[in-house]
Design a protein that fits this description.
alpha/beta, Rossmann fold, 2 domains, 5-stranded parallel sheet, 9 helices, 21% strand, Sig_transdc_resp-reg_receiver
C-alpha cells in the first residue's frame, strides 16, 4: 500500500460521493469520483488506482455489470456498495469478483476501515509483511507465493485470483486438515469489520473450487464438513 492510496469512487448520489470523498481525503487518501460507469474504463486505463468503490444502484449500466467488466480486465480490489437487505446483490457481486461489500446507510469510518483492510491484504505492504522467507506454500503440486501473491497450478500455469480468493486460500494453507468455521474464515480473511454475512464465505469457497478442483461439484481439495465448516484436505509444506 502506498503512502497515499488512490481511490476511484463510482457513485451517482453527489451528496454521498462528496461526503465519502471529503472523509477519505481527510484521512490521507487521493480520491477521484465519477457518477456512472461510462468513464470507468478510461479512468482505470489512465490512472494508477489502488482500489475501486462501486455503488451497485447506478443510472445506465448497473454496478454488477461494471464489476464483471472491470474484474475481467483488472486486478484492482473492488468494494461494492449495496442497499440494506439486498443479499442477492452482495452474493452476485462477490461471485463476479468483488473483494468486499459495505451496506447503505454506512458510517464513513466503516468504509475507511474496510478500504484499509482490503489494501493491507492486497497491496504491496502485504508482500513486505510476508517476509523474505517461508513465503511459499505447496500442496498437491500447487504453489502459493505469499510475497508475489500468485498461485501456480500443478501444470505450471499461473491462476488468476482476486484478493479475496487469495486470502481465503492463504487461510486454508495456514490451517491444513483442520475444520474452519465460516466465522473463523470471515475473521481470517476480512477481519472483525466484516459482519455476520456468512454467505459471502460460501460464495468465495465456490469461486476457489472452480479454480482448484478437477470437479468442483465433487471437491477433493476443499471439503465441506457438514454443520461445521470447510477444510483443506491435503498436506501442506511451507518453504
Amino acid at each position: 500500500m502506498s503512502n497515499r492510496s488512490s481511490v476511484l469512487i463510482v457513485e451517482d448520489d453527489a451528496e454521498i460521493a462528496e461526503l465519502i470523498s471529503r472523509y477519505l481525503e481527510n484521512n490521507g487518501m487521493a480520491v477521484t469520483r465519477i457518477p456512472s460507469g461510462e468513464t470507468v474504463d478510461a479512468k482505470l486505463a489512465a490512472g494508477d488506482f489502488d482500489i475501486l468503490i462501486l455503488d451497485l444502484n447506478l443510472p445506465g449500466e448497473d454496478g454488477l455489470s461494471i464489476c464483471r467488466r472491470v474484474r475481467a480486465a483488472h486486478d484492482i480490489p473492488i468494494i461494492i456498495v449495496t442497499a440494506q437487505g439486498e443479499d442477492v446483490d452482495k452474493i452476485l457481486g462477490l461471485e463476479i469478483g468483488a473483494d468486499d461489500y459495505v451496506v447503505k446507510p454506512f458510517n464513513s469510518r466503516e468504509l475507511l476501515a474496510r478500504i484499509r483492510a482490503v489494501l493491507r491484504r492486497t497491496g504491496p505492504q502485504s508482500r513486505v509483511e510476508a517476509g523474505p522467507s517461508n513465503q511459499i506454500f505447496q500442496f498437491l503440486g500447487w504453489r502459493i507465493n505469499l510475497l508475489a501473491r500468485d498461485v501456480v497450478s500443478p501444470s505450471g500455469m499461473k491462476v488468476a485470483m482476486t484478493g479475496a480468493e487469495f486470502d481465503l486460500l492463504h487461510a486454508f494453507c495456514e490451517n491444513p486438515n483442520r475444520v474452519l468455521t465460516r466465522d473463523q474464515l470471515i475473521n481470517m480473511t476480512h477481519g472483525p469489520t466484516a459482519g455476520p454475512f456468512e454467505r459471502s464465505i460460501d460464495v468465495l469457497i465456490s469461486r476457489l473450487r472452480q479454480k482448484l478442483e478437477k470437479d468442483p461439484k465433487n471437491p477433493a481439495i476443499i471439503q465441506t464438513v457438514r454443520s461445521e465448516g470447510y477444510m483443506l484436505s491435503a498436506p501442506v509444506a511451507r518453504i
